[in-house]
Amino acid sequence: MGIPGVRIRARANQWRVEAASIEQLQQLCVTSVGAMKVTNLKIRVTKWSPPKGWIGAPTSPGLVTYLVEPRGAGAQVILAWHEPIDVALALAAALRCLSPISEFGVGSMLTLAPGLPVAAAVLATGARDVLLPDASIHGHLRRCDTLVVPTPDSMSEVERAVTVVVSGETWIVDGAAHLVVVDPSVHNPIGRRSLGATEVIAASVAGGVLELRGSTLKLEVAGDLRSVDVEALRSVGVVRAGADLGPRWTNQLRACGLVINSDSASADSTKAQLADPLEAQVSSVASRHDALRGSTPVAAFGRWPSVSAVLLTNRETYLTHAMQQIAKLDYPNLQVLVGLHGLELTSARIAELMDLAGRELEFISMAGNVSFGAAMQLVSQRADGELITKMDDDDYYGATHIWDLVLARMYSGAQVVGKALDWIYLESDDTTVFRPTYAAEKYSFFVAGGTILISRADLDGVGGWRPVTKSIDRALLDRVKQAGGLIYRTHGLGYMYVRHLAPHTASVASEHFLSKTERTWPGLLRHQIFGTAP
């Protein structure tokens, strides 16, 4: 149970813990299952930097004291319960006070068994149930949904729906092996802007230690990449590796958005890879997608959330374009609802639109005198997905657009995620602009409205979409902020905002988007990432 660098003082029903980082607390949590029961927990963590405006919650039954206060660069957490609880659950509650989390697999209880290794630390913040060998089992109810054990024969007598064996970086989920080496709360691109990651560093492995060296950077990593390592790598675009770095470090680096080249790649080709900001970012996003979609617990569990895309329109002329955008989306568990706001379509036209979209669609008609916000709420109430995302009828969306949002929600733990408004096509000037005015990969209060993604539960929790005639996106973001929720802005790739000649629901003039631009292209920029390639 000992975690290097962590100090524990245990007395009757009390633990006092001193740790340098949240990662150490995660490791302590999963390795402490069954160690003892406590009514009081006091934690000092040396480094703590929560997103601005975020309010954590222990979500632990029987809690009678809850205190989180900054202490220098760190924090102190004091929790107390009416009745003793397993110390692992107490530590998990403290972690939920310190770090935002996003739990997929809604409705499935995660149960931790004793004896787990530190490799299971990524599950710590979601731990709300533990099972000890001598625990009594209710005879009329299956005890576990998903049981996480250290060996295949651990607690074999306990009924469960899913068995997860964690003994190292290879997890066995119901008999199938999965590589799980990426902790999304640590290995992620948070802080990686749309511009600026242009440094090239060298990587090598010697004596089981990863060495990363650049002109001003020198890191030696003996185990997993830590949050301080990830932060130091934000300005790095490409890693040149003289040999295979192994699946753990390769995937952790890629999850952070770094592109890994072999050392045989010429310096000129590496520079060329970074010279074009668009192509450099495309490579970075592809890199993080591969790692986050393939080497995280969510990937191993196969619990990617269902998503309902909601498109509300009162413009029949844009429906063909909108269906062409929907047809590109490659997310596997996607429902699409089309709200017809004051429109009536023939059955032939509906069949034509479904054919264009290449999938089943649900069309919902409502009167044109219903406010835009109320209409959006009516359509959203018909959604079946765990997550709801808003699409606009006139913008462009790339194939991985939904994946971008789902992954950002996973690693940010935000209640709302959306994209940066980096790429804009101005119809009046027949010009595409790259305008990264609002920093990407950042907790913020603004995201592009046509990309908003929120869970059904969180949308209901703030009262749904306000029944206003305009600015419904701003109204929702304000309500989430007032409720203490997080809003996260991921990268802008895969989304092209379109400004038309006709009057628009937004109040900002088109000329505004010609200022502070980094680059412009004549006409509509044609690229696969936006779904605009011929």
Summarize the structure.
With 534 residues, this protein is α/β, with parallel strands linked by helices.
Characterize the structure shown.
By secondary structure, the chain is an alpha/beta fold. Helices cover 24% and strands 28% of the residues. The protein has 13 helices and 28 strands. It has an eight-stranded mixed sheet with strand order 18-17-16-19-25-21-26-24, with helices on both faces. Strands 1-2-3-5-4 form a five-stranded mixed sheet, with helices on one face. It has a five-stranded mixed sheet with strand order 6-7-8-9-10. Helix 1 packs antiparallel against helix 2, helix 4 crosses helix 6 and helix 8 packs parallel to helix 9. The termini are far apart. The mean pLDDT is 93.
- Could you name the CATH homologous superfamily of the largest domain? Spore Coat Polysaccharide Biosynthesis Protein SpsA, Chain A
CA-based shape: globular
Structural class estimated from helices and strands: alpha/beta
**Poorly predicted runs:** none
The count of DSSP E runs of length 2 or more, i.e. the number of strands, is 28
User: Helicity level, as a percent range?
Assistant: 10-25%
Rg estimate, integer Å: 24 Å
- Second-tier CATH architecture of the largest domain: Alpha-Beta Complex
Largest sheet: 8 strands, mixed
CATH C-level category of the largest domain = Alpha Beta
Number of helices: 13
